[in-house]
Structures are given as C-alpha cells and as structure tokens.
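explain this:

___
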Amino acid sequence: MARPSALLRIAGLIVGAALVITGCGGNSGDSAHATSTPASAPAAAGRTDDAPAPTPGALPRIAILATGGTIAGKANANSAVGYTAGEATAQDLIDAVPGLDKIAKLSAEQISNIGSQDMNDEVWVELAHRINELFDRNEVDGVVVTHGTDTIEETAFFLDNVVASDKPVVLVGSMRPSTALSADGPANLRSAVQVAAAPAARGRGTMVVLNDTIHGAADVTKTSTTSVQTFVSPNTGPVGHVDAAAVTFLQPAAQQRHSHFPVPGGTPLPRVDIVYSHAGMNADQVNDAVGHGAKGIVLAGVGDGNTAKPVVDALSKAAKGGVVVVRSSRVGSGETVRNAELNDDELGTSASLYLNPAKSRVLVQLLLANGITDPANVQREFADRL
C-alpha cells in the first residue's frame, strides 16, 4: 500500500516504461520507429512502496503512436497564422526533443493522420485495442497520447473508461505547430514522457499533460482558443505538475477507481446527439435527433441543466420512448444536480453530475454499447465516474 502523502515528487529522469500516442491531424508521413541505447537513469525520489523496483540502469520503454494534430503541424506559407496539421512524423517529434533518448527507449507507430476535429469512433477503438495489446503483452508500462487539442478531452475520457490497466495513459498535444516561434510541442512531449514513466503515475488512469500541468481525464477541458494555458480542471483542479527535474502529484492515487467497459466490438458506436439550450428555444433539435435515429441525447442545458418547457417535454417523451436522455450543462463548471431544477424521476432522465456535455456523450455511447439503458442504472454509472 502506498504511503499517504500530500505531495508525491518523482525524479524527472526515472526508470519505468510508457507508450506515447501522438496527435490528431493532417497529412503526416509513414510510420516511424526509433530505439535509443539504454543508459543509466537516476532512481526515483520518493518512490511509493507499491511501485515496482526499477531495473538498475534500465530506461523506460516508450512506444509513440502518432495520429497527427497541431503538435505535428507545420506553417502554411499562404497564411500568417495558419498551418497544416500532421506534417511532422513521429520521428520528427522525437528528434525535436533534445535528450529525450536519455529519458526513455523509444519506438513509434503511425495510427492515423486526421485533424482532432475529425477524431472518431474507429480511431478510438483502434487506439484502445493497441494500448491494451501492448499492456497485455507487457511490452510497455504506460501510455502517453499526443493528440490534437480540440477533442483531446473526449479521447482521454474514452480511454479512461476502456483501458482497465493500472499503468498510466497520458495524452499530450500542443497549441502551436512544430514550426512556430516558441512551439510548445517539444516541451509538452518531454513532460508527457516523464509523467508516464513516473512510478507514482500508476493507478491514476488516463491523464492529459500540457504546459507543465497534469489533469485527470474526467474533469479536464479546453478553455481558450489560442492560449497555451488552455486546459483547466474547473471542478477538481490539476492532479499534478511537471518540470525538467520532477513530476509532482498533489495527492496519492485513489485506492479504488471506477469500473471499466470492454472495448466496443464494432463501430460506429451508438449515435448520441448533444442538444444545446438557448433563449427562445423550441423542440426541433430534440425531434430531429430522434428522427435521425439517436439512441441517446445529452442536453447542454442552461444553469443546472435546465431548458425551455417545450424541450423538456420532448426530452421526456424521448426518454419514455427508450432514448437515453442525460441532462448536463453548458456552464463551464459545477454539478448538474439530479432532481433539482427538473424532476428526473418523473421525466425519465438522468443527471450528468460533474461531467460536461462532451464527456457525457462519450459515456452514454459506452453505456448503450453495453446494453445499459435503464435510467437508474445510467445514473449509477455517472455517479461511478466521480
């Protein structure tokens, strides 16, 4: 059992193993592979009792699975601010980080070349299968995912719910392309490798690392269109920080985490639509979703998951007709409370609690894929993610 501690501080160059998956986007090149010569690494400071003892002199094994994204983007000559995502290969990303081969033994694979706005069920499932395969074969001891920032929180949350290993999964991206002045990708990638390799990262599920900050998958969200300090965890705060010398977790890993689902057997996943509430709203969005075959609907409601009465009536009708309906909120933080502003028991709906609409949609997809549709069971699954 790990010793309780307010801060778990782990040396930056530590012995362990990790997998790195890079980005969403563009037209990057063929699969890349690199292997460093093992070199000695300092022992981890403050290593917890249940962390595996490192092999003396061994480096972490890190597999880089590249999918594109801003972190692999290059400047567009026709625009002062534009860039083409996915131009840099996985090997390019490795080469841009001086000394990365002193932290880990590296290998790389190209999974896809899509912009993060185009991230989809097929890539999610492929990533999950590949990560689980590497874990099951004991080829790696952790996962770092570099990914386009637009949907990184959704991919992180999906993986957090289908990868059951206690080995860490870390997602990383960048706000600036690789050719930009002060590109943030190389530093972020180094930080992600450090975090995934830290013994104290075990048992924490999927994390997101950017701008020296470590976030948990359930709460992290993008808050700025351009700032490098775009990711925050509005309800819980970050789980830790990282710099060139050390990885610092702010509290011990939980003794028991939420349940996990098997990786879905096929794609696409069940259709779940998000309905965004606004002033002067009618029921057309709800009726359109049902008419186009949505098996689930997430309300991005005003305030505490509320919306106009015609929309409430349409959502209740859909729920009683077999559609899974979850109330969330378009507000950036706070809980959507069950049976508060609306009576979920009467409506046949569930409340998302602290999950935002995008992550609520991912969870409903997984629930539907596993045959969980009863409102009471749906509510229990949302409570399990707290």
